[in-house]
Task: inverse folding
């Protein structure tokens, strides 16, 4: 008897199609959020593409981000930007809204969101103004 293949979170979430929908729903929210907009002044299409590549790899899919840009080193790549706890929460709010918009539900959503939550708070590198 052969062993059943365990699916990756990338496969369970719906792969490239779902991640593209998520990124497409997410970034207009980010760019219009007054807490986040100052951090996202570049080409939205390029940022969306990098995010899709990263999330693919983050969820156990092909290493598309590393293949194109090298090791993600996400904290180091985000150090030039003032990421406060409230900005991390704003980013997560936008992600929750995007997940709702595309109808991402269930255990895979919970798992994915919890991993994103850990990552978002790991990116914090600046105290709140006035702290």
Result:
């Amino acid at each position: 008897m052969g062993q059943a293949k365990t699916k990756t979170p990338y496969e369970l979430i719906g792969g490239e199609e779902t991640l593209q929908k998520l990124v497409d729903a997410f970034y207009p929210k980010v760019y219009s959020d007054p807490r986040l907009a100052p951090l996202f002044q570049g080409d939205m299409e390029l940022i969306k593409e990098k995010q899709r590549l990263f999330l693919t790899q983050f969820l156990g899919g092909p290493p598309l981000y590393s293949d194109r840009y090298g090791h993600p080193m996400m904290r180091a790549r985000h150090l030039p930007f003032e990421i406060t706890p409230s900005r991390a929460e704003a980013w997560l709010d936008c992600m929750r809204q995007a997940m709702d918009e595309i109808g991402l539900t269930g255990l895979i959503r919970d798992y994915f969101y919890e991993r994103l939550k850990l990552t978002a708070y790991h990116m914090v590198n600046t105290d709140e103004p006035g702290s």
Notes: The chain has a mean pLDDT of 93.
